[in-house]
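Researcher: Go.
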Amino acid sequence: MLHRPAGICWEHAKLVTFVRDPVKRDSSLYKYIRKDPGHPIHREVRQMSLTAFIRSGVSLEVDNGQVRQLCGTEPELLQCAYDPKVHSPPHTPIGEMGWGRLADALDILDHFTVVGTTECMDATYEALWEATDWERREIPKANSTPETVLTYAEQDLILEYNQLDYELWTWATEGLKGELQW
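Model: Structure:
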């Protein structure tokens, strides 16, 4: 069920969200944490390879993080080292997100006017403008960093930890192509 905070006129609200290719998302997260000395898990991650980071279990975000956020069952994705002894329920342990969570996330997205992807920004904006009366204008790109070239093994590992997120992202991409209706 979609949580609707009080004080908002939901009758006229248009919900919009973006999902991201989980391979690019986890790779970017890894780079961000290693680069930012102020990040709570920087010290742990700075010497790790991407593979070690994904396998370490230090961050819930690398395990279907987008589905976790959409389902609302995870009160927050921790910005500190994940410790299953300390952070057990209500957090779902790494590797234990079931396929039912993907169904829950897709049910939640049924309430959204537009579900876009960061990889298809032009199509996302087009869908947004078609669904609203907002003025069409050029949207500047921000926070853009060069993509990291990953090995096939690194890509496969990220996908292993993000099967639900990959299906979610595929669903959103197909929706932008007009193959699905929201």
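Model: The mean pLDDT is 84.
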